[in-house]
Amino acid sequence: MSDDQSRAARTEAVRALEAEFGELIGQFRRVVTEHANRISPGMLPGAYKVFTTIVRRGSVTQSALAEHLLVDKGQLSRTVRELEQLGLVQRTPDPSDGRASLLSATPEGLERLDAARAPQENALAASLEEWSVDEIRSLARLLHALSAGTPPPPPPPPPPTP
């Protein structure tokens, strides 16, 4: 294969990958919107993202949250107030900084999140049911390399046969 053909084949493969990522992102957006609406009708996906980030972090200051999410502090402040009013998030004094508060999910917020996620809880596992464990691990390894911007590491050696 010539260099031009090789470049064209790579371009075509990258465009196909881009298209599949577009489909995957569209599906993800639909799921996030559904989850947000199950938690609170009319909740915007951005508020859902803020809430789930707080849940994953356990507790976090608002400034650390803004930095992590790369969002405007004013918009984040309004979103956090909305989440507080919905009973999903609470503030507690930050023991390491008396001027700051820690944001964390309330027990009600965690219950509502679990209930919102329940209908699709096993969707990924079901989609991967026919995949081998090695294929799943390979996909995870390749996606990690892609998100890190590094070349993929070689696949792990097969386990020794007994």
From TrEMBL:
Query: Which segments cross the bilayer?
Result: none
Query: Which keywords appear in this protein's UniProt record, sorted alphabetically?
Result: DNA-binding, Transcription, Transcription regulation
Keyword match Transcription regulation: yes
Any idea where the HTH marR-type domain is? Answer: 18-148
SMART domains xrefs: HTH_MARR
- From which domain of life does this come? Bacteria
Checking PROSITE patterns in the record gives: HTH_MARR_1 (PS01117), HTH_MARR_2 (PS50995)
Cross-referenced PANTHER family, in alphabetical order? MARR-FAMILY TRANSCRIPTIONAL REGULATOR, TRANSCRIPTIONAL REGULATOR, MARR FAMILY
Protein name, entry field: MarR family transcriptional regulator
Which species is listed as the source? Microbacterium pullorum
